[in-house]
Amino acid sequence: MEKFENYKNAGRSNPGKKFYYMIFNSRIKRTVFNSVCAFIAGLFLTLAGLYIYDKKNIPKGVGGLETSGVPEFRESDFDSGLSKSKSTDNSSLKSSLENSIAGSSENADKAAISSISAAVKTSHDSSDSGLLENHNQAFHGDFEADSPENAEALLEHELNEASSMDGLADGLGSDALTGESSYDDNLELCYSTYRVKKGDMIGYIADSFNITQDTIISVNNIRQSRLLQIGQYLKIPSMPGIIYTVRKNGETIESIAKKYDISPEKASRINNVENLASLNAGTTLFLPDAYLDWVTRQEINGDLFHKPIRARYWLSSYYGWRSSPFNGKRSYHSGVDMACPQGTNVYAALVGTVTSTGFNNVYGNYVIVTHHSGYKTLYGHLSAILVTRGKVVDTNTRIGKVGSTGMSTGPHLHFTVYKNGKTVDPMALWK
Fold this sequence. Notes:
This protein has 431 residues and is an alpha+beta fold. The protein contains twelve helices and 18 strands. Helices cover 43% and strands 20% of the residues. Strands 7, 10, 11, 12, 13, 14, 15, 16, 17 and 18 form a ten-stranded antiparallel beta sheet that branches. Strands 1-2 form a two-stranded antiparallel ribbon. The chain has a two-stranded antiparallel sheet with strand order 3-4. A hairpin with a 2-residue loop joins strand 1 (61-62) and strand 2 (65-66). Helix 5 packs across helix 6 and helix 10 (253-260) crosses helix 11 (264-271). The longest helix has 37 residues, at 106-142. 21% of the residues are buried.
């Protein structure tokens, strides 16, 4: 007991401990303080670890199947290499010709001829060795290069043959570039993976892989491009195009290709389906070189609608579940409330036709505008309605003024967007 008292007094004599026990003079206070400190320390270590991990250069791919980006093909490099090869071969031939003519003795002629044959053989091997080798054997059977005259004739013939082979190489290079033969025969769709990094945008990623933004959006089923996350993995196809799901029985590759203005033969080869084969609803196809329709693209990019209020406002209530401002109960809010001064102008959010106006106990004075692709918009609690039913409106048309009619606690605009009869979040669709 005496030892314990001495140990206790020694600990209390420490100024830091003395201050600690003075501030936290109960076991509960000390427990709470120690827990908070431990939590903060753990949080700091976790954030530090995540920061270090994020800075590491993680290779693209998943697991052990690491895949790199699609290699870039530059036509200028191909042309420069081809022209360099031609110039090297022709210079070798011309050099041999000059040596042959300059020589005066029979030994010099034979040496020049041997040099020419070697240069010509190298040129032939680089283009079509088998074809020229057979031709050389036939030609040398007719000419014996045992004199300067025959040597010059042989040189002239070989130079002409080399020029014709250059033309053949040009033709082969043109086919390789246009892809009319080898590319079409070996057309194949394959995928790689890409891990999104800080600062990436869909447009930048698409450009780096020589595909379109529509391709990345469609293949990865992206519904909102603004929600792209760092660390997210994307599938990258080897060619531009989109994913298409057959909507009804009886569709064919040819009818789908006509709709999207693409080659039915190419689509047929990639999907391994006959052009006129009847497809079942739900079948998934890859349509090469196809694009999304502009409505779908604007929906995904959040550029379809304009904001109906052009003045200052604040969002007093968001889309989704909320506590009712009238009874406090949990209720679902079908739109967004944009609070602003009484009488503020309200504009149509998209080109359309006014299909309904009037008064409602909930929305007060309201206007409904019908748009393309199954969209409708509702503007509620208006103090005044400035349009009539049947009027065609655009984004510069004033359709009403902000008010507080109906079930409202103050001047604001209630804005709802319907897609095929169901409400959607307006903030995901406006610019």
